[in-house]
Design goal:
Helix content: 25-40%
Structural class: alpha+beta
CATH architecture: 2-Layer Sandwich
Strand order of the largest sheet: 1-2-3-4-6-5
Largest sheet: 6 strands, antiparallel
Number of domains: 1
CATH class: Alpha Beta
């Protein structure tokens, strides 16, 4: 299974999750809203989830430890063991992105 399929499988309970091919990589989309990009580089798989204030609050409230990347504008997701929290974070991020539009 490729990494983008793996990520979609882990997030399937969040809603309509897809991996959209873009410029040699994949964007992970929830209900057609781009949440971030997949990075597969020399065997290191990462999902760069867009950083939002609501996401910051959720991460702090749930004592999640996530590195940030891409000029501190994304969370670097490498641990997919807690699907429930990841799905909740994905939904919160999607909702915040929609409010900003």
């Amino acid at each position: 299974m490729n990494f983008e399929t793996f990520v979609c499988e882990k997030l399937k309970n969040a809603g309509d999750i897809t991996a959209k091919k873009m410029f040699g990589t994949h964007n992970i989309c929830l209900n057609k809203v781009n949440l971030g990009v997949i990075c597969v580089n020399m065997g290191v798989n990462k999902w760069y989830l867009k950083k939002t204030p609501a996401g910051d609050e959720f991460i702090k409230a749930n004592d999640m430890k996530l590195e940030t990347g891409i000029n501190d504008k994304s969370y670097i997701i490498t641990d997919f063991s807690d699907e429930e929290k990841l799905c909740a974070l994905a939904k919160i991020t999607r909702d915040e992105i929609m409010r900003q539009k």
